[in-house]
Automatic annotation (TrEMBL):
Name this protein carries in UniProt: Cyanophycin synthetase
Organism of this sequence: Phormidium pseudopriestleyi FRX01
Quaternary assembly: Homodimer.
NCBIfam families, sorted: cya_phycin_syn, PRK14016.1
Gene Ontology terms, MF aspect: cyanophycin synthetase activity (L-arginine-adding); cyanophycin synthetase activity (L-aspartate-adding)
Enzyme Commission number(s): 6.3.2.29, 6.3.2.30
All copies of domain ATP-grasp, residue ranges: 224-480
Xref: Pfam families: Cyanophycin_syn, Mur_ligase_C, Mur_ligase_M, RimK
Gene name, Swiss-Prot/TrEMBL: cphA
Length: 897
């Protein structure tokens, strides 16, 4: 078997709308292509021995053991690889379940799709599944050591990708509230919400966290002084910088027992408590300076009592946990080391933060504590005897947590909320030492020993004992108060032709609302009036750029076939999804071989519309109309034909639609009609001579109207948007050359040629086409372009793209010319492969009153060639041969790019 390609999908996709994380592997079965599992002796037995848990995979016929039954009866190896990849992830602790395998048009080559939790782990599982299956085919087994290594590697990848318990808690709460989130590329930040509504978090720091509050909390001595001045009970202490100051500091705090800790420490690093001698103090001083960046050390009076963490969010106490240091409890038989090993076998314990609890690690501090008691790891503790192994009670060093939220005394609660506001933290962890949290601190010599920014949530969410607390909920309520949005409107457009023009028009209409619009197109990514990135930016990466930008209020996203196929959508859902059309373009690429498959691919967008939103569908395209059966949202149709049966039935049932009727672009619903504007007054329609531009305008107007844009602003947008270089480069850009006109359009497939023909045939004079086709299209597609050209133009120059996309030079032009010859039409044609030479020849030969139509590879190059020839003063030339068309209706001149 050979892996040809592995793709990672991250949003609604061709394989699943609901499951956004899918690995797609293109797998060539090679020698196993025509050999089902039933014909591989020993394969079933070897597979069951390696992965007996596959018995839990239902598959068809839908019962336990169903998949293994299929293996016995005979199934193809691509199907087996899918299930093995899923099971390997399951055994490594990543819960997945979705998979699907389909053979491609290439015999023996399969698309294997399966769910993943972590991208790297998912890709690893794909490769490991192929290795495992190949090994069993060849040897009848998969070595246990290799399987164990695979599982360990998968666990390591999952742990490495883990966001940490606090961040995971916040993300789960955000998802439960339907708040979208994104990874940031810097400083492990997470963006919650989209566009202008976004908030950012880093662990439990938020973009509301005061930098002054965070800095003060990190300054342990400064915090203590602030609290002491406010009458808050804190430990007696002092700050030193050199060892020779230590004895004086001990005397100043009242002698032993003492605590020594670094000024800028965290997570209990470098802290030693209950110090009772000079030797212990010196050793503790060394540990504290080692853990401190500033080498500044705090000496405090040691207060006996239990360690509590009090969590305050947005000024309100949310949770209280008693933290117990890592310890061993004797049973009268086992050594301390044996007790530690038994504790670490608890499935709730893991390494670092990858589980509810952390495994106990024996280190220098642990040995020091044991030595002070006269113990070592071989000591057998008495039954019930507790031996602590850490000075501090941090969960990250093996401690446990007991929920005490309902026990805290009202005075202590009041004090904690006051402390959080005094330090200035929106999310605040307060460390309290007291023998009884249910009594006022002053009554039992309790103190607040530290105040922490970015406190961990794990002890509250998953306490070892007591009631779990949803501490992420108040954080979300603070960041996104009830009634405030977390999402910006997303309007997405797909189809074979017209996407860029419709996207730009829709963005322009939305600009009339005064909001900042972010939009993506085949020529660039834009925010407001400025371009962010040039290029074909119609995939998820560009869309995510828009959704992450804090200035964007509305996203209008051109969504092309390639991006959906390669990565899925960049959003979980949109408010409006427009499907303009589906035609035979890009077939044979990415295993999309039929127009029906292309329609399924493009329907991903329509199916991803929010149930409260609108799918805008072309009522004249049967493949688009069929999408309505799978759409969960509301539906609105557009059509150039007011008598269209689909549209009429929809409107009779109270549905929303846009239609071209009596020369008007109109919105209809039920029994009322709202006329927006006459087509002749909409510049994009070329005085009403370009039917496909009228259709694009209908789709854009309907999309805007369905999302609440007032009709006056839609009308204004239509009236001020032109098919110009500035607004739609390469889309029906018409240039007045004095005695003739030149038109630049990016038509490159049969449907766009036919649409363009609707305008060209209305031209009263000679028409000259400079045509070509992308080299990655099928031979028959190129031949068809030639036939269509012969029906549209009176003269034709066949050129070729500089990038032949794998074809020999002249091959694409050959098939186009063949199509022209087969048409038996009146068109005369010649071949000039170089695009620049072809354009210049057409412009040189253009007779008076003619139209030169250029379908370029490079829009910029074509426009520059035309700009050099434009007359300084542009005479008014009528387009229809009888009367002038007002300049407000048709673009006669263009600015340079």
């Amino acid at each position: 078997m050979k892996i040809l390609k592995i793709q990672t999908l991250r949003g609604p996709n061709y394989w699943s709308i609901r499951r956004h994380k899918v690995i797609v592997m293109r797998l060539d079965l090679e020698d196993l292509a025509e050999k089902p599992t039933s014909l591989n002796p020993g394969f079933y037995q070897g597979l069951v021995e390696a992965l007996p848990s596959l018995v839990d995979h239902y598959c068809s016929p839908g019962c336990r053991g169903g998949f293994l039954s299929r293996v016995q009866e005979g199934t193809y190896m691509g199907h087996v690889v899918e299930h093995v990849a899923l099971e390997l992830q399951e055994l490594a602790g990543m819960i997945v379940g979705f998979g699907r395998t389909r053979e491609t048009t290439t015999p023996g080559t399969y698309q294997v799709a399966f769910e993943y939790i972590d991208e790297q782990a998912g890709r690893y599982a794909a490769r490991a599944a192929v290795r495992l299956c190949r090994s069993i085919v060849d040897t009848g087994r998969y070595p246990v050591s290799e399987l164990e290594q695979d599982l360990q590697d998968l666990k390591d990848l999952a742990a490495k990708a883990s966001l940490g318990p606090s961040t995971e808690t916040l993300i789960k709460e955000a998802e439960s509230r339907d708040i979208p989130w994104f990874h940031s590329s810097a400083r492990a930040m997470i963006q919650l919400g989209s566009g202008i509504h976004q908030k950012r978090v880093q662990a439990t720091l938020t973009d509301r966290s005061s930098i002054l509050g965070v800095e003060l909390a990190c300054d342990k001595e400064g915090t203590k002084k602030t609290l002491r001045d406010a009458g808050i009970p804190v430990p007696r202490g002092t700050l030193i910088h050199y060892l020779d100051e230590l004895q004086e500091a001990i005397d100043e705090v009242g002698g032993y027992p003492i605590v020594i800790k670094p000024l800028d420490g965290n997570h209990g690093r470098g802290i030693t408590i209950d110090i009772n001698s000079w030797e212990e103090a010196k050793e503790a001083y060394d540990a504290a300076t080692t853990a401190s960046k500033t080498r500044s050390v705090i000496i405090e009076r040691y207060y006996k009592g239990r360690d509590h963490r009090v969590l305050v969010v947005n000024g309100k106490l949310i949770a209280v946990a008693e933290r117990v240091p890592a310890h061993a409890i004797g049973n009268g038989r086992s050594t301390i080391q044996e007790l530690i090993d038994e504790t670490n076998r608890d499935p709730n314990r893991g390494d670092g933060h990858d589980n509810v609890l952390t495994r106990i690690q024996v280190d220098r501090i642990s040995m020091q504590i044991l030595e002070r008691k006269g113990y070592d790891l071989d000591t057998v503790l008495k039954d019930g005897e507790i031996c602590y192994l850490r000075y501090t009670a941090n969960l990250s060093t093996g401690g446990i947590a007991i929920d005490r939220t309902d026990e805290i005394h009202p005075e202590n609660l009041w004090m904690a909320e006051r402390v959080a506001k005094m330090i200035g933290l929106d999310i605040c962890g307060i460390d309290v030492v007291t023998s009884d949290i249910s009594q006022p601190l002053r009554d039992n010599d309790g103190v607040i020993v530290e105040v922490n920014a970015a406190p961990g949530f794990r002890m509250h969410v998953c306490p070892s004992q007591g009631l779990p607390r949803n501490v992420a909920a108040p954080v979300m309520e603070m960041l996104f108060p009830s009634g405030t949005p977390s999402r910006i409107p997303i309007l997405a457009i797909t189809g074979t032709n017209g996407k860029t023009t419709t996207t730009r028009l829709l963005a322009h209409i939305y600009k009339q609302t005064g909001k900042t619009i972010g939009y993506t197109t085949t020529d660039g990514t834009y925010i407001g009036d400025f371009i962010v990135e040039k290029g074909d930016n119609t995939g998820p990466q560009s869309a995510e750029l828009i959704l992450k930008d804090p200035t964007v209020e509305v996203a209008v996203l051109e969504t092309a076939r390639g991006g959906i196929l390669r990565s899925g959508l960049a959003f979980d859902r949109c408010d409006v999804g427009v499907v303009l059309n589906v035609s035979a373009d890009h077939l044979g690429i990415g295993d999309i071989d039929t127009i029906e498959q292309m329609a399924t691919l493009k329907s991903v967008l329509a199916e991803s519309v929010d149930p409260k939103g609108y799918a805008i569908l072309n009522a004249e395209d049967p493949l688009v109309v069929k999408m309505a059966k799978r759409v969960k949202s509301q539906i609105a149709y557009f059509s150039m034909d007011p008598e269209n049966e689909v549209l009429q039935n929809h409107v009779r049932n109270g549905g929303l639609a846009a239609v071209y009727e009596n020369g008007y672009l109109s919105i209809i619903k039920g029994d009322w009609t709202l006329r927006i504007e006459q087509a002749v007054n909409v510049p994009l329609t070329m005085a009403g001579l370009a039917p496909f531009m009228i259709a694009n305008a209908l789709a854009a107007a309907l999309a805007a109207y369905s999302n609440g844009v007032p009709i006056e602003q839609i009308r204004s947008g239509l009236a001020t948007f032109e098919a110009s270089v500035a607004q739609t480069p390469g889309r029906m850009n018409l240039f007045n050359m004095g005695s003739y006109h030149a038109l630049v359009d990016y038509a490159h497939n049969a449907a766009s040629y036919e649409a363009l023909g609707g305008f060209v045939r209305n031209w009263p004079g000679e028409t000259i086409g400079v045509i070509g086709g992308p080299g990655d299209r099928r031979d028959e597609d190129l031949t068809n372009l030639g036939k269509l050209s012969a029906e549209i133009f009176k003269q034709i120059i066949v050129k070729e793209d500089n990038d032949t996309r794998g074809r020999p030079r002249g091959n694409a032009a050959h098939f186009i010319s063949e199509g022209i010859a087969q048409a038996n039409g009146p068109a005369a044609y010649q071949t000039i492969l170089n695009e620049t030479e072809a354009i210049e020849t057409a412009l040189d030969q253009a007779p008076s009153g003619s139209l030169v139509v250029i379908l370029p590879e490079s829009v910029t190059r074509a426009i520059n060639l035309i700009e050099k020839r434009k007359p300084l003063e542009e005479p008014r030339i009528p387009l229809n041969g009888s009367k002038p068309v007002e300049s407000s209706s048709v673009e006669y001149s263009e600015s340079s790019t």
